[in-house]
């Protein structure tokens, strides 16, 4: 908690979000760049290290409460059972704190749960201006190209100070022409806020308690009402429908990519590259087109990922290369390679210089340094030693229908193509297995495991059993000299 931390940040997130047309998800749980809308609001609020961080929930409150408990345990959920307006929401939050014996003293920031582009820095600038100017309330405003739907900022003609906020539905035609709007984010003096909320009525077009009415109330009582105009109106954009959701995602993604590029990451095609907020990287990483980096994915120095890859919670080591790959919870070591067309599932761990090649799936398995699984294989619940090569089209048969079992292949082994390793099974260091083997028993170090039936050929089978087919004709042509009947005398 820093010296000028606010007493509280109150995030308003109880609204219905009807325009999202969602039966399953409350508006504030829709995601942008790997974080829910309300999660973005909480993350920005946390940067101010407030003494109290309150989220007002209402619509689909069980889901929102569960999400907050799981992902943002520092936030306290307060229920607003009926959504009687933004003023009512803040009043409910303050009354709930008061009922718990928490009397706020200092600054209260009110922000909204549906503006994911709003940063902690913007909240900080608002709080600083509020304190520096000695205001009773300070509103974050923006000048927007399309003010429809927002509350408009009415300024005093004489001194230019904010006089009131009028909602779209309550505004005159002249007021609707104003393009400075209320972002829905405010800094208040806590005591003045409590007093002003007590005076808010529901005498308006929507019959709600408007938080915005507190500005006029405080100004009439002689308090300073300040405004901070956002430098870029896009920072305060609120989400009401899925078109705005996509737009915000694009804007936030652009911001995240720009930050990565300025830190030394090459992004070949920003238009088809998507980063989540938690993605981290080192200089000289290269991201090729059509690549999604999700969760806490990390790119090591000089690594190259893409094209056409989706990596979630995956660590890519320095100099590693991953192409056309889907990965989740995997670790790709320094100078290791994956793909094209690899699927790395949770617990796939590739040591330095290991290789997972084309059409290979790896789950919960370690590949030692320089180990290779180049083609068409499934490696699950396995340990593969350093320097080992697994032949094409091999499968660790890890599941007996009830339990999973491990396959252990030692160091510097050469296993043949088309092997089935029936787990649990262990192949000793330096061992070989024959192509086409079903390996059911352990192979000792340095041994050769052969597990396949003896081949037998039945001569002339096709001509006898499939007469008249093209196969039979080809067979006849191939065997003509041998089939020649000895010349008759
Ligand atoms: C509100 C503002 C408007 C501003 C706009 C910015 C008021 C009266 N109007 O309008 O001036 O330009 O936001 O986006 O404040 N909420 C609750 N409980 C409620 C009602 C709303 O928690 O009873 C929450 C919503 O979930 C949302 C936020 O408050 O996060 C804003 O509510 P919304 O209904 O979207 O208000 P607007 O009409 O957009
Ligand atoms: Ca809104």
Distance N to C terminus: 114 Å
Summed up, the helix count is 11
What is the radius of gyration computed over CA atoms, rounded to a whole number of angstroms? 33 Å
Structural class: alpha/beta
Instruction: Identify the quaternary structure here.
Output: single chain
What profile does the largest beta sheet have? 12 strands, parallel
Q: Bound compounds, please?
A: uridine-diphosphate-N-acetylglucosamine, calcium ion
Strand content: 25-35%
Shape: elongated
Q: Can you give the mean pLDDT?
A: 96
Helix percentage: 10-25%
**Strand segment count:** 39
As residue ranges, the low-confidence spans are none
Give the tags:
29% strand, binds uridine-diphosphate-N-acetylglucosamine, 489 residues, 39 strands, 22% helix, alpha/beta, binds calcium ion, twelve-stranded parallel beta sheet
Describe it for me?
The protein is α/β, with parallel strands linked by helices and 489 residues long. The strands form eight sheets. Strands 12, 13, 15, 16, 18, 19, 21, 22, 24, 25, 27 and 29 form a twelve-stranded parallel β-sheet that branches. Strands 14-17-20-23-26-28-30-33-36 form a nine-stranded parallel β-sheet, with no helix packed on it. It has a seven-stranded mixed β-sheet with strand order 5-4-1-6-10-7-11, with helices on both faces. A hairpin with a 2-residue loop joins strand 2 and strand 3 (35-36). The longest helix has 21 residues, at 242-262. It is elongated and about 125 Å long. The relative contact order is 0.07. The model has no long low-confidence stretch (mean pLDDT 96). Calcium ion is lined by residues 114, 238, 240.
